[in-house]
Each structure stands twice: as C-alpha cells, then as structure tokens.
Amino acid sequence: MKRHAIALAALLVLCTFFTVDALAGKVYIWRDSEGKVHFSDQPPEAEEASGQVEERKFKEPPPPPPVEESAPVAGNPIEHAVNCTFRLTNKKGGASGFFINDKGLAVTAKHVVEDATYSMKAELPGDKRKYSVRILKKSREHDLALLQVRVDRATPYLEIRDPNTLVRGEDLWAIGNPLLAFKETITKGNFSRMFPEADWKKEAKLKKPPFRFRGDQVQFSTPVIPGNSGGPVVDNDGRVIGVVSFGYPNTPINFAAPSSYIKKDFESYLK
Questions:
Q1: What is the mean pLDDT of the chain?
Q2: pLDDT surpassing 90 at residue 216
Q3: Homologous superfamily of 163-264
C-alpha cells in the first residue's frame, strides 16, 4: 500500500510540474533517511538526502498559436480603405458604407437608407457573416446618414480629411460595390473642385440643384455607378474626403457629400 501511495504522490507531483507551465524546467527526486520519497524544483541540502538525487528535465511547452487577425491586413492605404468599406443590403436593394471608428460606427449616403427597413445587413470584407445595421441619424440637409453596425469585434476605420484642403488634380479613389454584384471595387480619378451650391443656378443655369440635398459638393472624376453610393472617396493616404452621392452617367462629372459635413452633422456621436 505504501508503494502505491508513494507512486500516486509522485504522479500527482509530476502532473503539477507539467501544469504550472514547467516554471523550473527541472524536478529533483530523492529519499530521506526514513525512506520517504521527495520531489522538488530545488535540489536538497546535503543532509536531507540519503543516497542518490535523481534530476529530471522537462521540455518547455510549445508557443501558443498565433492570434487570428480580426480583420484583413492591408498592404497600403487604399487597401486599408477597402477593408473599412462594406456592402450594405436590404430588401429594396442597397449600396455601400464605411466605418469611421473601431466600434462599428459607420457612414453612408442618406438616399441609400431613405426607405430602408430593419432588414439592413452589412457584409464586411473577408467575413462571410452578415451583420445587423441600425440607423442612428440622418442629416437634415446633406446626403449623409450615420449607422451602427452590430459587429462583435473592433472595426478598421477611415480617418477624415477636410476636402477644402484638396488641390485640383489630386488623385482620388472611390471604393464601393457597383450594382451590388462587384464587391470591393476600386476606381481612380481626380479632384476637380469644391462645387458651391450657388453654382447650380449661376453656372449650370438650373433653377434648383438636380437633387434635394443642400450644401457644397466635392466634384470628382472618379468613375462611379449605382452601388457606389454611400461609399468613401479617399485620397492617396486613404483618408476619406467625401461620400459618393450622385453623378452624370457616362461622364467624368460626379459628386460626393463633403466629409467635413460628417463632423458637423454627427458631432455628438463622435465624442
């Protein structure tokens, strides 16, 4: 019985050394003058052991597996902008949207969600799941809407640049989901100018703008079509300068709601 008890005690002690992540790396085994077996991570004093002290080494535990990325890793600023942009769908259609913080706060065009229902879903790059979307606020004057995507992880997001700092001819990139069939599409063009609201009457000779939204617009030549609406227009550093609003088919004349209006209209949510 004593031998079985000793063997069981030895087994328990050895298991303990394994489960504490092998802190010492070694186990010392010896018998005292009364024949009792001892186990320790420290060698015994000379007077403690009667006979030979057995020393056993244990392998270090294998390193933990690498942490799985919560979002695709971007190789450049434009690819990062793609990772921040998602396809927005509902029973009546959909378009595009993009994140502006790491907690799922996002922006799209107001006309995209004007008649939207609670069935809206967000489809993120590299993620097969569909996430529920809630409309937090719609701008009164501009083609902008603020969304909350109910995602269970930190979201990549775009930094906002004031479009009034753009230089004519500066490269711009539009990111979105044309026709909802061509996901994560990138098109390149240029900044034309900040188009003042007053110029619809003064220059375009229209009694009123060809849309019901107010304010100035970012005019750009980057190709966009339905499905791009609500997606970001970004500069070479991947900073958003506008939200795709509308354009003239088969022309390089397109317009975006200035990103400066995002901060203006949704200030209370961005604090």
A1: 82
A2: yes
A3: Trypsin-like serine proteases (2.40.10.10)
Class of domain 78-149: mainly beta
Which segments of the chain belong to CATH 2.40.10.10? 78-149, 163-264
Q: How confident is the model at residue 224 (pLDDT cuts 50, 70, 90)?
A: very high
Residues 111 and 143 sit within 8 Å (Cβ to Cβ): yes
pLDDT of 9 higher than 50 = no
